[in-house]
Amino acid sequence: MSATFAKALEAAHDAAGSQNNPASTLYVVATPIGNLADISLRALHVLAKVDAVACEDTRHTQQLLRAYGLERPGSQLLAVHQHNEAEAAQTVIARLSHGERVAYVSDAGTPAISDPGARLVAAVRQSGYRVLPLPGASSVTTALSASGMTGDHGFVFAGFLPHKSGERQRAVHALAQESRAVVLLEAPHRIEALAQALSVLGERRITVGRELTKQFEQIETLTAQAFHGWLAEKPDRQRGEFVLVLHDAPVAATAGEGLRVLQVLLPELPLKTAVKLAAEITGESKNELYDQALALKKT
Fold first, then answer.
1. pTM, rounded to two decimals
2. How far apart are CA 32 and CA 63, in angstroms?
3. Rounded to an integer, what distance in angstroms lies between the CA atom of residue 50 and that of residue 124?
4. Which of the 8 DSSP states describes residue 297?
5. What was the pLDDT predicted at 278?
6. Most buried of 50, 95, 215, 217 (most Cβ within 10 A)?
């Protein structure tokens, strides 16, 4: 453990040591999505205090714990992943029944969102035991915060689209009908196929987050139809884990909306300025709005 993390662990105990961490409880702990410094002080304290750590990959988690000076014997690491989650939940519940504290971590980020953990949480709650979430890093909120989305209309988390081409195409066509922002996840070996599928969305904007929080982090906003070409420009752009934010769909102007906006703006602004703003607000043709503005001025 580095001296830096030794100090962080000491600070964690100082900050969270007085908090109540009840026994017979499952602690759902968010871990970094790439940058080790993105661990919370509370997470460090709880990971040091619990009796066992359930995890998506025991080898990965052991490396993570080792980096923070929290390495554990193998008997205290419980494998709980997508292939055994239902059965492994019973092992966790048995430990809780003996008064133990158990933490659950996925390989990266907040468990039970796209990673395993939801079935474990449901089984623990159904058995009458408490579940305490420890907030922290999430690829979903990280990408949204850098996308420039205002959040006025909310967003939808779609996660990974189907792998099969036909099913993926149908999913993309469904997304075309969704007016809210949509967050997608994708692995590097399928990102090119996803980009091709999304191209049918044309001018709808996408913020691409690649290797978020890591050394080669890249965040770009471009149109859906330009995404595949952008990927193809440099081979490195197809490496790493991806989070995509499909921006919310522009609100279509209703018939006559441009004229109504002009009627509001023209008494207050110069003609050209009013036309420019009306075009930006409604998405209507600036030339057509200019002709309408001239007609209004003559009346």
1. 0.81
2. 13
3. 16
4. H
5. 86
6. 50
- Over residues 95-144, the pLDDT tens digits come to 999 999 999 999 999 999 989 999 999 999 999 999 999 999 999 999 99
CA dist 249 and 172 (Å) reads: 14
Collapsing DSSP states into helix, strand and coil, what is residue 222?
A: strand
Contacts (Cβ under 8 Å, ≥6 apart) of 198: 172, 206, 224, 227, 228, 244, 246
| 76 and 50 Cβ atoms separated by less than 8 Å | no
- Give the CA radius of gyration of the chain: 25
Q: How far apart are CA 129 and CA 126, in angstroms?
A: 7
Q: Which residue ranges in the chain fall short of pLDDT 70?
A: 1, 251-255, 299
Residue 154, class by beta-carbon neighbours within 10 Å (0-12 exposed, 13-18 middle, 19+ buried)? exposed
Alpha-carbon torsion (274, 280, 284, 286), positive or negative: positive
Residue with structure tokens 């003559």? 298
